[in-house]
Amino acid sequence: MSRLQKSLAVDAARGWLFAAGGGSVWRARLDGSRRRLLHNGTAVGDVALDLQKAEVYWTDTWEGSVWCARYDGSRARRAARIAAAALAVHAGRLYWLDPALRGGSVVSAPLGNLSDHTVLVDNAGSSLKDILVWSRAAQTFPSNLTHATTEASNALDLDLDTGADLDLDPDVAAGDAAWSTCGGGGGCEALCLFGGRARCVCPHGELAPNGKNCTPYKSFIMYSRVTKIDSIHLTDERDLNSPYPPIQDKELMRNAIALAYSYNASRVFYSDIQRGAIHSARFDGSDHRVLLEQVGAVEGLVYDWTTDTLYWTCASAAALRAARLAPEGGGAPRARTVLRLRHDDRPRGIDIDPCEKRVYWTNWRANKPCIERALTSGGARAAIISSRVLMPNALALDRAARRLYWADARLDKIERAHLDGSHRQLVTQDRASHPFALAVAGDWLVWTDWVARGVFRAHKLRGGTEALRRDVPRPMGVVAVGPQHAACSSDPCAVLNGGCAEECHSEGGVARCACGAGRVLAADGRACGAAGGACGARWACAEGPCVPQALVCDGVPHCSAEPDASDEDLYYCSE
């Protein structure tokens, strides 16, 4: 079967799926196995089944005719020369649509004499597409088939296609077994499909160890595509059964851009820039609601699971903002401004390091694009990447490896560096023509790209780009959903130097501050001063002079002209 198949027909009782389109007609089991080409022609349109006689009908639009054959493709014959756009079979009669007859007609004739036709409806127009006979009989076990027989079941194990060693119609034999084992759902939570023997399958989620129930996938990819949010598998792009059904809502979802998620709550958060709001829904699409209104053009979004807080970039107001999520039933969360940026700043991608309580974001302002970071309190803002960048669009942290990844939409490449911006390396330039969003998933990088129109992955160290989804117009945000664990060091000195201005020593899991030679610990237990208390009540600079306490950590260096002067020490001022 191929993408050219446009028409489907199912015989559920016998366990067969028929597909027609392009120039061919195929048959397969309901699980896609045991595929067989029944007809290879020039132009095949619609397909329909005679469930009583186990025959398949199809239209040949090239020669203007209807053909018929047994389920195994044998005894193929031209049934009539009629120009049918669509077919249906019911109670010994063929029904079809003829757009050219009497201004567009619905026609019926007995299967034994298709020339003896009756026009049921005329002047229906030339845009007739499909026809369906609504009947209980179409979903009832055929009268000429009996429920499971031991003989039929045994035939399945011998040869499903030939019925070898048994004087049975193989399709009838297979149908009996399919009906007997899938009747009543076969004990399956979702679907029971017949492919030689009945088995349970899950359209979304994975099959549980008991072979009956469906359980949610533990990790997967979600990406937004304007009016819906889709999920896909990370490591098997051939598996088109998405982990969850698409999330969409005609009223709530107008233009979904940025994504974030809470694994423990099984919720996805997304921004809608047309509504100027942040919304939330469960992974399965239920409990879809507005979370925050009037937040502007939010293009980057991240969730801090350690504090239950959303952080986002706002392009329309040039700021980093946040909101602590309220417990269920606790009312709407309230947004606050973490850091107000300059009017010419253009913040886009965002991620968070919960261990060091830092927010990282991209800024593609026109005069000096860069990648920046700051504490979640808004302090200690610094540009860590400011050269050889033009439009740093997407950003993601590899928290386990302590690495930063970003994508430049003008330089068409993805790079990585240490969290302080050092040790910069190129990852890939393949299918990175205009990357919009980026995520780290274990050993993989996943991104969306507007120009390449798809969702792609590459190994974060070896590169090698592969497409997970193609032909996606305007793919937006992307997240790699998985258990969220803050891989923070157990050493209290590993995070912000334990809040110490100079030396930090771990004693019994507690940070103890110390000072270098000739200096003593200040009264606050974190700062260091000259021995002998030469500065008195003033603050002792590591560089030598003393400054008033009111000038310490005010954002302006006073101990020296250097931006990293001791009175503005990052670790000391972070506490």
Sum up the structure in keywords.
575 residues; Neuraminidase; mainly beta; 4 domains; 4-stranded antiparallel beta sheet
Give a written overview of the molecule:
Strand 40 (503-507) and strand 41 form a beta hairpin. The radius of gyration is 33 Å and the shape is elongated. It has four domains: 7-139, Neuraminidase (6 Propeller), CATH 2.120.10; 150-215, Laminin, CATH 2.10.25; 220-481, 6 Propeller (Neuraminidase); 492-574, Laminin. Helix 1 (150-158) packs across helix 2 (170-182). The model is unreliable at 147-169 and 171-178 (pLDDT under 50). It has 575 residues and is mostly beta strands. It is built from three helices and 45 strands.
> Rounded to an integer, what's the Rg over CA atoms?
33 Å
* Count of DSSP H/I helices: 3
CATH topology of the largest domain: Neuraminidase
CATH class of the largest domain: Mainly Beta
In spatial order, strands of the major sheet run 1-2-3-4
Strands, total number: 45
Biggest sheet overview: 4 strands, antiparallel
Shape assignment: elongated
Please give the domain count: 4
Overall SS class: mainly beta
Q: Fraction of residues in helices?
A: under 10%
Mean pLDDT: 86
Q: How much strand?
A: 35-45%
Alpha carbon gap, first and last residue: 63 Å
What secondary-structure arrangement, pairings included, does this model have?
Elements: E1 7-11, E2 16-21, E3 24-29, E4 36-40, E5 44-50, E6 55-60, E7 65-70, E8 77-80, E9 86-90, E10 93-98, E11 105-110, E12 118-121, H1 150-158, H2 170-182, E13 191-194, E14 198-201, E15 206-207, E16 214-215, E17 220-224, E18 229-232, E19 256-262, E20 267-272, E21 277-282, E22 289-292, E23 298-304, E24 309-314, E25 319-324, E26 335-340, E27 347-353, E28 358-363, E29 370-375, E30 382-385, E31 392-398, E32 403-408, E33 413-418, E34 425-428, E35 435-441, E36 444-449, E37 454-459, E38 463-469, E39 478-481, E40 503-507, E41 510-514, E42 519-521, E43 528-530, E44 539-540, E45 546-547, H3 570-574
Antiparallel strand pairs: 1-2, 2-3, 3-4, 5-6, 6-7, 7-8, 9-10, 10-11, 11-12, 13-14, 15-16, 17-18, 17-39, 19-20, 20-21, 21-22, 23-24, 24-25, 25-26, 27-28, 28-29, 29-30, 31-32, 32-33, 33-34, 35-36, 36-37, 37-38, 40-41, 42-43, 44-45
